[in-house]
Amino acid sequence: MADHYQTLGVTKGATADEIKKAYRKLARELHPDVNPDPKTQERFKEVTEAYDVLSDPQKRQSYDMGGSGFGGANFGGGFSDIMDAFFGGGGSRGPRPRTRAGQDSLIRIQVDLNEACFGTEREITVDSAVVCPKCTGTGCQDGDHPEMCLSCKGQGETQQVVRSVIGQVMTSRPCNACQGYGSVIKSPCRECAGEGRVRSRQTIDVKIPAGVETGNRIQMSGRGEVGAGGGPAGDLYVEIVEERHEYLVRDGDTLHMQIDISMVAASLGTTVTVESLDGPVDVQIKPGTQSGTPIVIKGKGMTRLRRGDRGDLIVHVEVHIPTKLNKEEEALLRKFADLRGEKSSDAHVKGQDGSIFSKLKGVFNK
């Protein structure tokens, strides 16, 4: 059997005040809310058991004579009631407010690349909580108002005295009659059942700025959920989801597109017209253009968000090599090769300054 005096750190001749003082000190150090370690919680139980015995004269006498100290006495106060007295749990908290702030809402909308670049306005429909039109948020019907709870006198909580190992302890609990509000609604509004708000479908105009991209959110203050009791509404967040374009690929404020040209056009040079977000744009292909060559068109990319200027459009040229030739075409190409002194078996090994090595270095250096 544990030595209760040793557990509390007092001598066998300790007075009741010394025992109480020792227990309070240890309880503050070992309480689970202060130290959640399992071993510490076990120590807390031992300390409380020791105090339970030594604080009661009859139990202490029985313990000093070799008994366990427990004589079957029933104490209504548990650990939580004891600690309420020590750590402030029994203090007055006051009534809960019926009016509370509402939650934020989130809705996603899809925009195409053109809308993302230049901005647009959208009309969206949302289902949200709004102030009850019948009671205007009071939760009462026919113009009534919440009345003071008679059970707690408007305090929102009731107090009771319980017996514990340290004597009588005053504890506070939320009032059951009013659920802690301090007031009661005797005739709840039939429209909102006393909530002060109802669900409703609303149409909202959203202005989407130029330059948005997937993941951007537009905050609309006060357009979210209305709170209970007609409380202030939260915010509505409109999240952008950008649709994939048919041939334009976005990389930040830069747009990329690929065009295929014939080997003749690449050799002789030409002008091709491509369709950009701004309409038709002429692209100059210089004579001798190689496959993979990027051509930069300034200011035809995406609008930069909150700046207004534009990025670039990069046109990637791919030279198309025919896979099938008729006899006449093949004869002409062979004649062309003879004129240039070229043979079909000719090949040249490039050093590390060659184009493919330059590209690889660019990749590894990123």
Index terms:
366 residues, alpha+beta, Helix Hairpins, HSP40/DNAj peptide-binding domain, 3 domains, four-stranded mixed sheet, three-stranded mixed sheet, 9 helices, 15 strands, 25% helix, elongated
Question: How would you portray this structure in words?
Answer:
With 366 residues, the chain is of the alpha+beta class. It has 3 domains: 4-73, Helix Hairpins (Orthogonal Bundle); 105-134 and 193-242, Sandwich (HSP40/DNAj peptide-binding domain); 249-364, Urease metallochaperone UreE, N-terminal domain (HSP40/DNAj peptide-binding domain, Sandwich). The chain has 9 helices and 15 strands. It has helices spanning 4-8, 16-30, 38-54, 57-64, 79-87, 113-118, 263-268, 327-340, 355-364; strands spanning 105-111, 120-131, 147-148, 157-164, 167-174, 183-184, 197-208, 217-220, 236-242, 249-251, 254-262, 270-276, 279-285, 294-297, 313-320. It has a 4-stranded mixed beta sheet with strand order 10-11-15-14. A 3-stranded mixed beta sheet has the order 1-9-8. Strand 10 (249-251) and strand 11 (254-262) form a beta hairpin. Helix 2 (16-30) runs antiparallel to helix 3. It is elongated. 22% of the residues are buried.
